[in-house]
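A.,

Following up on our hallway conversation. Structure tokens first:
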């Protein structure tokens, strides 16, 4: 029994060195976002903002790089169109005949 345990330790010894690296933290963030997205336990919009908090916290990317990725022109246009469509749906303008 102990020999099998030692054999497994030697086999997976290199994986222990990965713990605490940015790659592991990035994989954790992706896994967390996937679970939140599939279960919908929090809003999808909030799930999309998780990297803005966790990437600088874990040292994966500096906050300036993360924020620059979120505030590109195309992304802002997409967010603006989502806000506009939500406002149209909330006020039920799309149901009124012209």
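Then the amino acids I'd put at each of the 98 positions:
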């Amino acid at each position: 029994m102990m020999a099998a345990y030692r054999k497994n330790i030697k086999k997976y010894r290199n994986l222990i060195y990965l713990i605490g690296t940015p790659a592991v933290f990035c994989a954790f963030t992706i896994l967390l976002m996937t679970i939140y997205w599939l279960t919908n336990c929090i809003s999808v919009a909030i799930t999309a903002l998780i990297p803005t908090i966790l990437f600088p916290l874990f040292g994966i990317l500096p906050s300036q790089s993360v924020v620059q990725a979120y505030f590109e022109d195309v992304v802002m246009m997409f967010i603006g169109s989502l806000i506009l469509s939500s406002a149209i749906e909330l006020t039920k303008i799309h149901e009124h005949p012209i």
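The chain has two domains: 1-60, 62-98. Curious whether your intuition agrees with the design.

B.
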